[in-house]
Amino acid sequence: MVTTAALLTRPHLNIADVCRTLKVNPSTVWRWASNGLRGVRLPMHTLGGRKVVFQDELDNFIRDTSERPKPSRASPPPSASHLAAEAAADARGL
User: Fold this and answer.
1) For every one of its 94 residues, what pLDDT tens digit does the chain have, with 9 covering 90 and above?
2) Which DSSP category does 2 fall into?
């Protein structure tokens, strides 16, 4: 079981600190905690009656929401209708 004393020693930020760090509005931080961003929620905890975000969890949130999917280099295969249209154009000499 994790004690409150152990949690107090863990680096954490209050909501105002998160806002200053990320240069966002407090409503944005609350939205990230309740709804998430790109499928990732910002973990928020109550510590001593105040809402806090642990530094390592904030770092993970930033990393997970900043990663962009790598574009696929392979083109999708042409559809049947596309192939049929090309064959019809070839037959007409276009």
Assistant:
1) 667 777 778 899 999 999 999 999 999 999 999 999 999 999 999 988 999 999 999 999 999 999 766 666 777 777 888 888 888 888 887 7
2) -
pTM: 0.66
Query: In a 3-state reduction of DSSP, which class is residue 4?
Result: helix
Q: Is 29 exposed, middle or buried (0-12, 13-18, 19+ CB in 10 A)?
A: buried
Domain boundaries, the chain: 11-66
Q: Note the CATH number of domain 11-66.
A: 1.10.1660
Q: Is 12 left (phi over 0), alpha (psi -120 to 50) or beta?
A: beta
Give the DSSP letter of residue 69.
P
Helix 15-22 vs helix 55-66: crossing angle, to nearest 10: 40
